[in-house]
Write a structure and sequence with these properties.
single chain, Beta-Lactamase, rod-shaped, coiled coil, EAL_dom, 4 domains, 5-stranded antiparallel β-sheet, transmembrane, 10-stranded mixed β-sheet, Alpha-Beta Plaits, alpha/beta, 26 helices, 52% helix
């Protein structure tokens, strides 16, 4: 029984509840029944007393009136024989007492008094005596008690029987199945979800609660199997992600929404040279805020970084010192990740070491402002410095001498011994000038054989004369090149502020004109004079003739191949414009391109070049030669509102695919960094046209251009390539540019390749394509492939 109870406690609790409720109802029913019987017996008692009053009281009254004692006693005895009347007592008016029966002292007795009176003929009332009856209710209560036990016994037996029947029904209909379900649920775990729950019972047409419970448990198991499978998939994915994050070269920190670090990957510890515990203990948002806000006025409020991250994320660069004290540049990207919209989210901080890129960018920035051969400021920086010096001279009411110094021997040395010796001559001249000139004179190298000097002075020109003498003395000394003593020579043109102009470009151009006069007249020094401006007439003549050059068909395209060094195949060609004027003869692009840009004619010329180049490539395609063509785009031409449409028109007119065309853009165009430039570049890229950054590193190089604009190609300027076999800095820069471009998925073309050693070194660095006189000089279209074929035959 105990075992049964332990197995079926619910049934027993139900049985107990039934017993209690049944007992309560039984007690209530018995009470009602006994109370009803009690009221009925009391009613019978009342009837008996009423009989006494109606039958016996008048008789006793008559007996008293007649003073018939025998009759009185007989009447009392008769009353005592009535049910519930145990004692009768009659007290006459004279004080005589008659009794019948026995009086008891039980608690259930009650007394009833009757006054016996008589009315005579005169209607006078006479009190004859008092009749007192003692009524005993003991029998009523005894009878009720007997009935109580009988009813209780019968009801208890009935209730117990019904309860046992219900208990058995519950066991067979419910409890045993619940026990089965309990055992199934107890054995249920993630490894045993495939077995369906079944009960040993017939399933009805209309499912009952047990059927629904079984279905619910089976559905629960099915959902659990699905969720377990999903969890296993997610856990597997998390393990892969965790392994990927741990093995990632990028340093990562996962933080809660308040910025407390919860996870750091090994790459972070290696990058910062700190143990994991130290990295986890750092207040990263606060640390970043302090580093970024250092020196800013007004100071930013605490928490500005997290507020910005919650809105749009944050990215920035910062200088960091590792655990060993080594400084490094980090690119930080802080973002908020939420699994659901209601999720508080986690902060993800990704740190990338960009020290190498910063060093390359610094080198490129240095190259942008300094000449790589002499380490002197280049022309761009010279113009900036001249503007500053002019402002200072204007404020001090002073003068500024701008001197353009040419080395006449450079051209002869380069043509005779080679460009390498020409560069060596320039380096020797730089050392001579640095040693021979005072430090107060600003020095720069503006072109191959040209230096620029700027010297502020007062109202006396003595300092200028002394400086010019120092220049002449320095460049009059012989230098040894290839065991040959060579005298550089000197030709100096001088322009004075404010006499000859008040703008850097004006002073430079006039000093350049004076220098050209000095060179042409074999003089050492030439101050600018108004008649020197006559040389500008040629420029005007060029500008006038150039307007008719396109219509007269004087502009011709020459093509220089772009070669794959591994196969020797022509990957493409660069279209270069040449001008043979009927009036001026052959005019160098260096002479007319700048003029065309200044007059705006470059737009029409550029469109002509683009159209002719597309048509020529299409003609080559019809001959079975599939090749790309590169066309240089002037900033003025690119800025034309209809530039993109004109490119599309040229392609459509020639029937040429867009991917056969490459447009070369100089860094000068990118200086505006306007949305218009970005939009046009994106339009061209969507058309399928490839974009190349020309002369990379010589202008205003910025890594942001490669990151933000859709460039496919970077062309390394020939100035780097020319000296890379003998200059370790140039070699490092070339290699850095190639590696950087490849990391960004950009193809690299090296320009100005003239030596086999350059080809070998560039190939070892992984340069994709090359272009230069080593492979071919620019030639007309009809000679391009004939030269290649003849070269192949000779090989």
């Amino acid at each position: 029984m105990v075992t049964f109870y332990r197995r079926n406690p619910l049934s027993f609790r139900l049985m107990a509840a039934i017993l209690v409720v049944s007992s309560l109802f039984t007690t209530l029913a018995v009470g009602v029944q006994l109370y009803t019987d009690y009221r009925r017996d009391l009613g019978n008692l009342g009837l008996r007393l009423s009989d006494v009053e109606q039958a016996f009281v008048p008789d006793l009254t008559d007996s008293l009136w007649l003073m018939d004692e025998q009759r009185i006693r007989l009447g009392l005895d008769s009353i005592v024989t009535l049910p519930y009347v145990s004692h009768a007592r009659l007290l006459t008016a004279e004080g005589r007492l008659y009794t019948s029966g026995e009086a008891s002292n039980r608690g259930h007795e009650s007394r009833h008094l009757y006054v016996l009176g008589h009315q005579d003929e005169k209607e006078r009332e006479w009190v004859l005596g008092e009749l007192t009856l003692l009524v005993d209710k003991e029998e009523i209560f005894v009878s009720l008690q007997q009935k109580l036990w009988v009813v209780l016994a019968s009801q208890a037996a009935k209730t117990l029987g019904v309860t046992l029947v219900i208990l058995l029904l519950l066991h067979f209909a419910l409890s045993r199945h619940l026990a089965v379900l309990a055992r199934v649920a107890d054995r249920l775990n993630l490894n045993h979800l495939a077995q369906a729950v079944r009960l040993e019972r017939r399933r009805h047409d209309r499912p009952d609660e047990l059927d629904r419970l079984v279905d619910a448990m089976n559905n629960m198991q099915r959902r659990l199997r699905q969720e377990v499978a999903e969890l296993e998939r997610v856990h597997a994915l998390n393990r892969r992600l965790s392994a990927a994050v741990s093995a990632s070269p990028a340093a990562m920190i996962i933080m809660n929404e308040q910025g407390q670090a919860e996870y750091v990957n090994p790459a972070l510890c290696r990058l910062l040279e700190l143990p994991e515990s130290r990295c986890l203990a750092l207040d990263w948002p606060g640390l970043l805020e302090r580093r970024l806000s250092r020196g800013q006025q007004p100071a930013r409020p605490v928490g500005w970084l997290l507020a910005e991250v919650r809105q749009q994320g944050w990215q920035g660069e910062l200088l960091w010192r590792t655990g060993s004290g080594r400084p490094c540049w980090l690119l930080a990207n802080l973002s908020l990740s939420r699994a659901t919209p209601d999720d508080a989210g986690h902060l993800l901080l990704v740190l990338e070491d960009i020290t190498g890129l910063k060093e390359v960018e610094h080198q490129l920035s240095h190259q942008r402002r300094y000449d790589h051969l002499t380490n002197l400021p280049n022309r761009a920086m010279a113009m900036e410095r001249l503007e500053t010096m002019l402002l200072q001279a204007a404020q001090e009411n002073g003068y500024l001498a701008v001197m353009v110094v040419a080395v006449p021997a450079y051209k002869e040395v380069s043509e005779t011994l080679g460009i390498v010796y020409g560069d060596a001559l320039i380096q020797e001249c730089t050392q001579l000038l640095n040693a021979g000139l005072d430090t107060g004179c600003f020095k720069a190298r503006t072109r191959d054989d040209e230096f620029l000097f700027a010297l502020p002075f007062g109202h006396s020109a003595t300092a200028v004369e002394a400086c010019l003498q120092q220049i002449k003395d320095a460049l009059s000394r012989s230098v040894c090149l290839d065991n040959l003593p060579i005298t550089p020579g000197v030709a100096v043109g001088v322009a004075i502020y404010p006499n000859d102009g008040n703008h850097p470009d004006r002073l430079y151009s006039r000093a350049l004109s004076a220098q050209q006069r000095a060179r042409s007249q074999k003089e050492a020094v030439q101050f600018f004079e108004p008649e020197i401006q006559a040389a500008s007439y040629r420029a005007l003549h060029i500008a006038t003739a150039l307007k008719r050059a396109v219509a007269k068909g004087e502009l011709r395209l020459y093509y220089q191949p772009i070669v794959d060094p591994r196969t020797g195949d022509y990957e493409g060609v660069e279209a270069l414009v040449r001008w043979q004027s009927a009036e001026l003869g052959w005019v160098s692009p260096l002479d007319f391109i700048d003029i065309a840009e200044n007059t705006g004619d470059i737009v029409a010329i550029g469109h002509h070049i683009l159209r002719e180049a597309c048509n020529q490539v299409r003609r080559w395609q019809l001959q079975g030669r599939d090749i790309r063509v590169s066309v240089n785009v002037s900033p003025v031409q690119f800025g034309a509102p209809d530039f993109v449409a004109s490119v599309a028109h040229c392609l459509q007119e020639a029937g040429l695919e867009a991917d056969r065309l490459k447009l070369e853009i100089t860094e000068r165009l990118l200086l505006s960094s306007s949305e218009t430039v970005r939009h046009k570049c994106e339009q061209l890229a969507k058309m399928g046209i490839r974009l190349a950054m020309d002369d990379f590193g010589t202008g205003y190089s910025s890594l942001s251009y490669l990151r933000d604009l859709p460039f496919d190609i970077v062309k390394i300027d020939q100035g780097f390539v020319r000296h890379m076999t003998r200059n370790s800095r140039d070699k490092a820069l070339v290699r850095g540019i190639i590696d950087l471009a490849h990391q960004l998925g950009i193809t690299v073309i090296a320009e100005g390749v003239e030596e086999h050693a350059q080809v070998e070194l560039l190939t070892r660095f992984g340069c994709d394509l090359m272009q230069g006189y080593y492979f071919s000089k620019p030639v007309p279209a009809d000679q391009l492939f004939s030269e290649k074929e003849s070269s192949s035959c000779s090989d």
